[in-house]
Amino acid sequence: MRKKQKPNAAPPRFLEKGEISDDLAAVGPEKPVGYDNLRAMRHWRAEDIAALRENLENRGLKTLLLKEKDCAMRHGALYAYDEKALQKLLTQRADILHKNGWPSEPEEFIRKIAREWVPEKTPLFDTIADTFNNRAHPGRTDVKVPKTHHHFSKQYLDCLREREKNPRSNRRCSPP
Fold it and tell me: Could you tell me if 94 and 88 are in contact, meaning their C-beta atoms sit under 8 angstroms apart?
């Protein structure tokens, strides 16, 4: 049985062998972390993924290949990160990380963001969004939730609005 696609949802994009996604290509001092779901690379062989990792590592980045059992994403994920830039950000936000029981060491931080979804409209969510250089995510505390958004469902935006009004809400918003 095929899974129904959400109306207005873009079809999944699959990467050609050797292609680097925009998210991974942008990783560097301004965007310390990027990732791709391994589903995007479903036609790749293990050697192709190894070559992509080598390409990223030759740019001075660290990579982490996580299988589905090690992260919250179906199919697993490939993360790339600028260790120096990420460590700088984690050091600047050490109080937020410590208060929430999060690691301040880059690889352990990556492993944790791969496993756990953090409640929106919290300083920890803002910290994670900053590691991806996502300054416009409506889940941030410093971004007003828009009436509509091309990427997010009405239900998700409604949940974010509720969290804006009641920051202590335990309601978990599920992104698209």
Answer: no
Measured N-to-C along each axis, helices 106-115 and 123-131 cross at an angle, to the nearest 10 degrees, of 110
| Cβ proximity of 154 and 148 under 8 Å | yes
Most confident of the ranges 40-54, 132-146, 153-167: 132-146
Please check whether residue 139 is in contact with residue 129, taking contact to mean a CB–CB distance below 8 angstroms: yes
Look at residue 80 and tell me whether its pLDDT is greater than 80.
Answer: yes
Cβ atoms within 10 Å of 126's Cβ, excluding its own: 21
For residue 80, CA distances in Å to 20, 59, 69, 145 come to 11, 10, 19, 29
Measured CA to CA, the distance from residue 5 to residue 151 in angstroms comes to: 14
Cα(93)–Cα(174) distance, integer angstroms: 25
Q: Which residues make Cβ contacts (< 8 Å) with residue 100, sequence separation at least 6?
A: 124
Query: Residue range 103-129: average pLDDT?
Result: 95
Which has the closest alpha carbon to 43: 75, 74, 16? 16
Whole-model pTM: value is 0.82
28 phi and psi, to 5 degrees?
175, -160
Q: What is the pLDDT of residues 18-42, one digit of tens each?
A: 567 888 999 999 999 999 988 877 7
* Average model confidence (pLDDT) across the chain: 86
